[in-house]
Specification:
Blueprint: H1 8-21, E1 25-28, H2 33-46, E2 50-51, E3 61-63, E4 77-79, H3 84-87, H4 96-107, E5 115-123, E6 132-138, H5 141-150, E7 152-153, H6 156-161, E8 168-174, E9 184-188, E10 193-197, H7 202-205, H8 208-224, E11 227-229, E12 232-237, E13 243-249, H9 256-260, H10 266-271, E14 274-279, E15 283-287, E16 293-296, E17 301-305, H11 315-320, E18 326-328, E19 331-333, E20 338-340, E21 352-353, E22 359-360, H12 362-367, E23 378-382, E24 399-407, E25 417-419, H13 423-431, E26 434-436, E27 448-450, H14 463-477, E28 483-487, H15 507-518, E29 524-525, E30 530-531, H16 547-553, H17 558-573, H18 581-594
Parallel strand pairs: 1-5, 3-18, 4-9, 6-8, 8-10, 13-24, 24-28
Antiparallel strand pairs: 2-3, 5-6, 5-7, 9-10, 11-15, 12-13, 12-14, 15-16, 16-24, 17-23, 18-23, 19-20, 19-21, 21-22, 25-28, 26-27, 29-30
Helix pairs in contact: 2-5, 13-14, 13-18, 17-18
Bound molecules: guanosine-5'-triphosphate, sulfopyruvate and manganese (II) ion.
Residues 250, 252-258, 280-281, 304-305, 307-308, 313, 440, 489-490, 498, 502-503, 506 line the site of guanosine-5'-triphosphate.
Length: 595
């Protein structure tokens, strides 16, 4: 099949990949509905995808992955920079020559008897100065159909690249035998190259997402003066019509999609507040002509966690999944071919197929303590489906950012919200983030680990250099830099229940954050940063949450924080000479304030 571009760099690389993988057939993905329809029909006919109820879920498909292939695999993810010290202590590293030598035989002939799909895509709106082009070759229709939702895919992407540029990310994916022992997710930052093999799941194989838009892009951003971050982007429209944009970095499955699409409590909507979603997972940020920091969402869809999503917790996400959506590893209701997951509602389907494919009686299965949907089951939904998608979603210039919010799952230590003293201290606050692990990656769930800026699994270079880049960006932005905050929706009481209601009520915290950005509310200085006066968090209309509860959520337990400081000191030791002096200064200052 004819190539879609005259660009010799693309064509030469694609030829190399064809010679290596030896597919029976090669298909260039032009992005046309006709072509995608053909692929959908093919995937349905082979059983790779299942068609869902055309009336209730028009255009929606179901896909199930192997039980050993349901999440990102951090222990098999590598940053293969030429020098080990450029990958740093938080990444797995291997010499690129060695890694190419190890993987090349695994890809040799891997697509015999299969079709290779060549997917051109743009991360970021077509024509945006912040957008970048990738080409992914894959043997998976599931990947093609997901990339069609998650990116601006097809021939349009080559418009951005042009006929000569070599500036595109080369992504090679093969599901191979989906063998977990031979699974590798490898980034070669200096080659703009990603090789992924033996997985067919989400972040491991949709190479535009974590592999490119975070791991490769964070490295590009350091070299080119911008930032690639694991952040949602949202706009808060105030009663006077003005919209303030904020970004928030929370680790995987810690609430980005939910915050990005929140519906404010009634008291706020009545006064005219509204939230607009620009992005739910990744932000690319760059200083604009006016010196402020601007953000685009490089993605075009949402790869969101299904369990926990319901009418009440995230109406907008649920609405986004009602058409042209792909569901992965949720449960099926066989009576009407719709989908179900934990907490969607209180009625698990009786005639159900659980996520591994077994037909079960849903209510009985759930009562016995089983889960019908995998905890990391996901929906892939087009951004245009989202009722609150921002009118600025496709703005090539991005949106100006007033605040950056960090946060994680902490049962105790971290208060509901605090503000950093300044950008340098804010960088420190991001660097000391810690959170309980979730089902988004394989391994134990609920273990507290350090996850700086929610980038632990996604930073494509040395974390010490990454912090230095943050500090550098602060200098470039000067007094136009966004204010930096930290939030924690996950403090628990003695029974282990969440104290803060969360979800839409997080608007109450955003409200204070915006007021702080505008300088219209004062704060209390604590050893860790500025906190609200409890009465400045609006609790009107909340059931059982009073200003006293807020005061409790804002306590800074000095003993816990002294322990925390010790943990940070231990963590910082890993970075040796690459730890910016500003960061150890901030730690010393924190210790002094806690003494
Ligand atoms: P990734 O897509 O993995 O990056 O995750 P994410 O950060 O977008 O997380 P998401 O919004 O999908 O939320 C993950 C889980 O946290 C879901 O089960 C939510 O129901 C739950 N969650 C989100 N926000 C809140 C909150 O404010 N409070 C509580 N208690 N749970 C929340
Ligand atoms: C995450 O794990 O942070 C995700 C899902 O957003 S994945 O695309 O699998 O990385
Ligand atoms: Mn994520």
């Amino acid at each position: 099949m004819a190539t879609l571009t005259k660009n010799p760099n693309v064509n030469k690389w694609v030829d190399e990949m064809i010679s290596l993988c030896k597919p029976d057939k090669v298909v260039w993905i032009d992005g046309s509905e006709e072509q995608l329809d053909g692929l959908r029909a093919e995937a349905i006919s082979t059983g790779e995808m299942i068609k869902l109820n055309e009336e209730k879920l028009p255009g929606c498909l179901y896909h199930r992955t192997l039980p050993n292939d349901v999440a990102r695999v951090e222990d098999r993810t590598f940053i293969c920079s030429r020098k080990e010290e450029d990958a740093g202590p938080t990444n797995n590293w291997c010499d690129p020559k060695e890694m190419y030598a190890k993987l090349t035989p695994m890809y040799d002939g891997v697509m015999k008897g299969r079709t290779m799909y060549i997917i051109p895509y743009s991360m970021g709106p077509i024509g945006s100065p912040l957008a970048k082009v990738g080409v992914e070759v894959t043997d998976s229709i599931y990947v093609v159909l997901n990339m069609a939702i998650m990116t601006r895919m097809g021939a349009q992407a080559f418009k951005n690249l042009g006929d000569e540029s070599d500036d595109f990310v080369r992504g090679l994916h093969s599901k191979a035998d989906v063998d977990p022992e031979k699974r590798y997710i490898v980034q070669f930052p200096e080659d703009n190259t990603i090789w992924s093999i033996n997985s067919a799941y989400g972040g491991n194989v949709l190479l535009g997402k974590k592999c490119f838009a975070l791991r490769i892009a964070s490295f590009q951003g350091k070299n080119e003066g911008w930032m690639a971050e694991h952040m949602l982007i949202l706009g808060i429209q105030k009663p006077n019509g003005e919209i303030k944009y904020v970004t928030a970095a929370f680790p995987s499955a810690c609430g980005k999609t939910n915050l990005a699409m929140l519906i404010p409590p009634e008291g706020y909507t009545k006064r005219g507040y509204k939230v607009w979603t620009v992005g739910d997972d990744i932000a690319w940020l760059k200083p604009g002509p006016d010196g402020r920091l601007y953000a685009i969402n490089p993605e075009n869809g949402f790869f969101g966690v299904a369990p926990g999503t319901n009418e009440k917790s995230n109406y907008n996400a649920l609405a986004s999944t009602k058409r042209n959506t792909i569901f992965t590893n949720v449960a099926i209701n066989n009576d009407d071919m719709t989908v179900w997951w934990e907490k969607l509602d209180k009625n698990p389907p009786v005639n159900a197929t659980e996520w591994k494919g077994e037909k079960v009686n849903g209510p009985e299965y759930v009562a016995a303590g089983n889960k019908l949907a995998h905890p990391n089951s996901r929906f892939t939904a087009p951004a245009e489906n989202c009722p609150c998608i921002s009118p600025e979603f496709n703005n090539p210039q991005g949106v100006p950012i007033s605040a950056i919010i960090f946060g994680g799952r902490r049962a105790k230590t971290a208060p509901l919200v605090y503000q950093s003293f300044n950008w340098q201290h804010g960088t420190f606050v991001g660097s000391i983030m810690a959170s309980e692990t979730t089902a988004a990656a394989t391994g134990a769930v609920g273990v507290v680990r350090r996850d700086p800026m929610a980038m632990l699994p996604f930073c494509g270079y040395h974390m010490g250099d990454y912090w230095a880049h943050w500090l550098e960006m602060g200098k470039v932005l000067g007094d136009k830099a966004p204010k930096i905050f930290n939030v924690n929706w996950f403090r628990t009481d003695d029974n282990g229940d969440f104290i803060w209601p969360g979800y839409g009520d997080n608007m109450r915290v955003l409200d204070w954050i915006i007021d702080r950005c505008e300088g219209t509310v004062d704060a209390v200085e604590t050893p860790i940063g500025y906190e609200p006066k409890p009465e400045d968090i609006n609790v009107e209309g909340l059931d059982g949450i009073t200003t006293e509860t807020v005061a409790d959520l804002l306590t800074v337990d000095k003993n816990l924080w002294r322990e925390e400081a010790k943990g940070i000191e231990e963590f910082y030791k890993k970075f040796g000479a690459k730890l910016p002096k500003e960061m150890s200064d901030e730690l010393k200052a924190l210790e002094a304030r806690l003494a």
